[in-house]
């Protein structure tokens, strides 16, 4: 199976950080880099890409930095991944948007691998299309709260 590139993983982390600060003004690259442990030069390239995809905007000068273009509850994880990686499908023949028959395929309609990979693609799309940046931040906050809640721990001997 294909994995998300470091570029996309870092891009998502930067978007989560911007989501947490949505409405509070621009965030400096240096702050994002330090908070999210992303190499600054790499983050600069990623943010330029995210800007060209219409996900973030930048402001130059004093008080400048990056902000989300839309509220975090309006940006899906699928839209980010599609922009940064391309189709969600693990094979080109399973893609909805960039379908291409595999070179070694004998019969596309009866190919067992294609049938299964379409199901995989549909399951992935269902989850990622219905998950927003805001939802992920909320899940992270819940996980942190559970992790830091001493009453949530049970010890048995």
Q: How is the secondary structure organized here?
A:
Elements: H1 6-20, H2 29-36, H3 40-52, E1 56-59, E2 65-68, H4 77-85, H5 112-129, H6 133-148
Antiparallel strand pairs: 1-2
Helix pairs in contact: 1-2, 1-3, 1-4, 1-6
Parts with pLDDT < 50 across at least 5 consecutive residues: none
**Mean residue pLDDT:** 90
User: Which quaternary structure do these chains form?
Assistant: single chain
Beta-strand proportion: 5-15%
Q: What is the molecular shape?
A: globular
Give me the side-by-side strand order of the main sheet. 1-2
Question: Helix content range of the residues, please?
Answer: 40-55%
Spatial extent as radius of gyration: 19 Å
Helix and strand pattern: HHHEEHHH
Structural class, by secondary structure, is mainly alpha
Report, as a whole number of angstroms, the end-to-end distance: 42 Å
Biggest β-sheet description: 2 strands, antiparallel
Instruction: Determine the number of helices (DSSP H or I, runs of at least 4 residues).
Output: 6
The counted number of beta strands is 2
What can you see in these coordinates?
- This protein has helices spanning 6-20, 29-36, 40-52, 77-85, 112-129, 133-148; strands at residues 56-59, 65-68.
- With 157 residues, it is mostly helical.
List keywords for this structure.
mainly alpha, 6 helices, 157 residues, single chain, 2 strands, two-stranded antiparallel sheet
């Amino acid at each position: 199976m294909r994995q998300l590139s470091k570029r996309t993983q870092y891009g998502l982390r930067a978007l989560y950080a911007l989501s947490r600060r949505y409405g509070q003004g621009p965030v400096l690259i240096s702050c994002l880099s330090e908070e999210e442990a992303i190499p600054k030069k790499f983050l600069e390239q990623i943010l330029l890409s995210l800007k060209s995809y219409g996900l973030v905007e930048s402001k130059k000068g004093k008080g400048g930095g990056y902000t989300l273009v839309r509220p975090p509850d309006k940006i899906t994880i699928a839209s980010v991944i599609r922009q940064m990686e391309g189709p969600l499908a693990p094979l080109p023949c399973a893609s909805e948007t960039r379908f291409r028959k595999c070179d070694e395929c004998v019969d596309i309609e009866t190919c067992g691998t294609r049938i299964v990979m379409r199901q995989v693609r549909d399951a992935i799309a269902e989850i990622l299309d219905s998950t927003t940046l805001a939802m992920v931040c909320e899940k992270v906050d819940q996980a942190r709260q559970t992790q830091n809640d001493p009453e949530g721990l049970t010890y048995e001997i």
